[in-house]
Design goal:
CATH superfamily: 6-pyruvoyl tetrahydropterin synthase/QueD
CATH architecture: 2-Layer Sandwich
Number of helices: 3
Radius of gyration: 17 Å
Strand content: 25-35%
Mean pLDDT: 95
Oligomer: single chain
CATH class: Alpha Beta
Structural class: alpha/beta
CATH topology: Tetrahydropterin Synthase, Chain A
Number of domains: 1
Order of helices and strands: EEHEHEHEE
Strand order of the largest sheet: 4-3-1-2-5-6
Largest sheet: 6 strands, mixed
Shape: elongated
């Protein structure tokens, strides 16, 4: 990567649960974490305020994180118990979110996409999110790292 300014922002306190139904061990059972996400941003040039990214402008992203991960039950779209989870959702027993993959690696990639969608629309390529760490607790985290093709800071 070429020379650039970088910064990070952490969003934390998203208690949710999920299960990895294909896992042969205890991860196949419903379990939960208070997820957090750290995003790495980069820009070749600072904005008019001297920022890579103005953190106060990330409210829509913060709301999207809360809508997806705050007191929700995450389930894979191919979970064989999906109909039962949907019935429990309809009965008000859980707040269901169906995802392609509920794992931390896939969650990091999902948040990376949300952040870059927001930045591309708002700034037209001046800044990007190049890495997201999705943390389930103080011991375990997964990252997704990529520079979007549209980012003008390449080369």
């Amino acid at each position: 990567m070429s020379a650039a300014f970088t910064c990070t922002k952490t969003f934390s306190g998203y208690p949710c649960c999920h299960r990895q139904w294909r896992h042969p061990g205890h991860c196949r059972f419903v379990h939960g974490y208070s997820r957090s996400f750290t995003l790495w941003f980069r820009a070749r040039e600072l904005d008019v305020h001297g920022f890579v990214v103005d953190f106060s402008s990330l409210g829509a992203l913060q709301q999207r994180l809360a809508d997806q991960f705050d007191h929700t039950f995450l389930v894979n779209a191919d979970d064989p118990l999906l109909e039962q989870w949907q019935a429990l959702h309809e009965q008000g027993a859980l707040d269901l979110r169906v995802m392609d993959n509920v794992g931390m690696e896939a969650s990091a990639e999902l948040v990376w996409g949300w952040a870059n969608q927001l930045l591309k629309e708002r700034e037209g390529g001046r800044s990007c999110c190049w890495k997201v760490e999705a943390r389930e607790n103080e011991k375990n985290a997964a990252c997704y790292e990529a520079v979007p093709e549209w980012f003008k800071g390449l080369g």
